[in-house]
Design a protein that fits this description.
62% of the residues lie in helices and 4% in strands. It is mainly alpha-helical and 359 residues long.
Length: 359
């Protein structure tokens, strides 16, 4: 916790600088005590208003009942220059509230006390909360990039390319798609793995509280959602064209996803699993499925299409017949990801704001 206050003070001789530290809950007391410890000032009206007696009475023995002072310390006049070092050795940096008192050549203003009503920054102690915050932050940034590009490809880019003449398309695709797909595929990796890392910490905490193992929750996560992707891949690679018709393909993938979510809940509902664990187990599973779509289908197809387009633009030869088939597969996988992004984002919201699966 860190709070910096600067109060203009007037001392008889020179400039007074002091610092005092303490926990947020002790902040008002620490602030008032700090003024008495480090100053020998002509601020009698202020002293009378706040303290009711002279600050010189406080220049003797300092005792604090809280953990701020572990033992009594004597602070005497003329030793104020050693106070910051003395206090900084008493409290750890991450829980310090620093109050810097200095002279601006004027009299102390009561407006400085208004800082007491200001907000205090309270940072959780320990490494784990800070790591979780970092993972969520990275997860959000990468996820916005990934899903934003997904929506761009589906809603803007694909219809736009269809409107272009073939010569214009040969120029646009090699310039636009490599860069866009680089950000698309790598933001999917960062999103998924930052999210899974964060989720595994939740699994570990829930399992630890229940004195059990979270291995089943993690193992079934990867097994179920990888199997769901395998079903989709089998439909895309099957010889029958009817399986890739939108109604048939959509129904089959929908059944695989709904069945995967049901199976995950069925195998991981023992009473100790939290709402966050289960909701992310489903939403994160959809994210895993979508990332496999990006790397296993979309990028593999688009990589070949970009190479063929470059070659066609350079030599004037037409695109191979395989290009149309791969483009259709990539578009089908991208549309699947577009649809799945909605329940995936819903489960992310459910994890923290709608405890449908438990506490």
């Amino acid at each position: 916790m860190t709070r910096i206050l600067r109060v203009p003070l007037k001392k008889n001789k020179g400039v007074t600088r002091g610092a005092i530290s303490g926990d947020a809950e002790d902040f008002p007391a620490v602030f008032l005590k700090g003024i008495h410890l480090v100053l020998n000032l002509s601020v009698k009206p202020f002293e009378k208003f706040v303290f009711g007696h002279s600050s010189a009475n406080y220049m003797r023995l300092v005792r604090q009942k809280s953990d701020f002072f572990k033992r009594p310390h004597v602070i005497r006049k003329g030793q104020t220059e050693t106070l910051p070092r003395f206090l900084s050795s008493t409290m750890p940096i991450h829980s310090r509230i620093a109050i810097h008192l200095h002279d601006r050549g004027g009299q102390m203003h009561l407006s400085g006390m208004a800082f007491l009503a200001g907000p205090l920054l309270q940072f959780p102690e320990g490494f784990t909360p800070n790591l979780q915050l970092l993972l969520r932050w990275v997860h959000f940034i990468a996820g916005i990039t990934w899903v934003g590009l997904l929506y761009f490809f589906t809603l803007v880019n694909t219809p736009f390319l269809k409107e272009l003449d073939p010569p214009a398309r040969l120029k646009v695709v090699p310039l636009l798609m490599p860069r866009a797909l680089w950000w698309f595929r790598w933001s999917s990796v960062v999103t998924v793995f930052a999210g899974i890392w964060y989720w595994m910490m939740i699994v570990h905490a829930d399992a630890h509280n229940a004195q059990t193992s979270g291995g089943r929750a993690i193992g079934t996560f990867f097994a179920i959602w990888t199997a769901a992707f395998a079903v989709e891949m089998a439909l895309l690679m099957a010889p029958g064209e009817v399986l890739r018709k939108a109604p048939v393909f959509g129904a089959a993938v929908g059944l695989a996803v709904v069945g995967g979510a049901w199976l995950y809940l069925y195998l991981n509902t023992h009473g100790w699993e939290s709402n966050r664990l289960l909701a992310i187990g489903i939403g994160g599973g959809l994210g895993w499925f979508m990332m496999l779509n990006v790397w296993g289908i979309v990028w593999r197809a688009q990589k070949k299409i970009i190479q063929w387009t470059r070659s066609s633009s350079a030599t004037g030869t037409p695109l191979p017949a395989e290009a149309a088939r791969l483009s259709g597969l990539a578009q089908l996988a991208a549309r699947t990801n577009f649809v799945l992004s909605f329940p995936m984002l819903l489960m992310m919201a459910v994890a923290s704001h709608y405890p449908v699966f438990g506490p």
